[in-house]
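Lecture notes, structural biology module. Today: joint structure prediction for complexes of three components.
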Amino acid sequence: MRIEDVELGDELPEEHPDVSLATVRRFVRSAEMDFPRFTDHDAARAEGLPGAVIPGIMSQAQLAAMVHRWAPGCSILTLDTVFRNSMVVDTPVVCRGAVTDVGDDGIIEIDITIISEATGATGVLGTARVRLAD
Amino acid sequence: MILDLHTHSIRSDDGRAKVANYCQWIRKKELPLDGVVLTEHRQFDDESDYRELEDQYGLLILKASEVETDYGHVLVFGVNEDMVHAFDFARIDNPLPMVLAAAKRCGGFAVPCHPGRRNVGLFSHYEERGPVDDVEVVEIYNGGSIPGEDERSRQEAQKYGYRGIGGSDSHIVSRIGLCATEFVDDIATMDDLVAAISAGRCEARTWRT
Amino acid sequence: MANVDIAAIRADWVGRVFQEFDIVVDRERMLEFAISGGETDPRFIDPDDPEFQASTGFPTHVNVARMLPDDFPQIGTGGIDGGKSIEWYKPMRAGDHLHAEVQIADLYEKTGRSGTMVFIVNRMTFTDADGEPVAMVDWRMIRQD
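The predicted structure, tokenised, for the full assembly:
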């Protein structure tokens, strides 16, 4: 993907990342945040959550991965995400992205969101500033 | 004429959209919007000047505010020098009756937004505290609502006889225009907007699927 | 939030560095973070790739000994994650020796679906052995009544 191939309004292919309990457990161990609210549905419910929740930084990582797949070789300069609603582990989510600015300097901006397919609620939204590969 | 009456830019703590990018997006996507109203959280932006963008993109860009009250969040239109001194926009517990009255006294108009939302919506407070006098209009379509919230907004607005407006509540560029408000008359200024909302010469619209 | 003077706390604390520490970037942890986070780009998941480096979100995982200064006022309870932003200046590589500084970058109050919240923005800045900036992470911590 090069800057001349990108237009304002382009949408990234939707992705349905793996949010299974097994993958979340692997992620939280790597992130040193292995807490029951992320890895144990019963323990999470006892905390008042609807079930084990997907860590916000895991959603953020999955959004970055979506951008890297869409534009191989790109560099994400900034990734700014707001964690708005909890999303439950083992419940399908969809990642979306759309190009909202194409700069003369070869840097683009992308809106990124993860939405729970069960509730329709936006779990994470934000923006990425990305330098495309030469 | 269709205006998105509820939008946030990077001037809001959780806004991630530049106003120029909203304008580009509206034109590129050929959205049926004639303009937007910026409603930054807990403040009135009296610094930004968007006249160049208005000219460049042929859009109306007005400024209002989203303030916080003891009955949830409220859009205030027609903010002026008098209004910013009438109550503290930064507070999160302004009494709603006071905000409604102050807005009107200063020549503006206040509209509770996303009223069907838990905690920050008007109707969630009605359950325990009963209705507030002087509410006339509420936001019945909000682009940030989760399923069920707008349905509740519309049902309860009908029950209490409130008129409705719509706004996207966009915080990122690609969500602009999901909901908006269609006006009977042309709107060129904030005074026009306040007059039209006060007179009920507008209708809420949604394009959410 | 009752009995908390947000403006005063803000004036006292915003901008003050309250913690510094050093880390060595761990290759295995980089790999695990990238793979389990869904990366497929060899730059992040193949240690033999000449451009092997930390994936975008990696600095968000760095745990600090103290999230807030020892004498920071008690504000509400809980520690919900309200969001994170990452700004990159240069790639982070396995084995890099990094220095981190932590400060309170902002503090403000608002209401949301879950009630009254105070947002405390904790900023961590990473520099390399030459003192060059590598990355900056802003973490918006939420405290509630």
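Point to remember: The longest strand of chain C covers residues 97-112.
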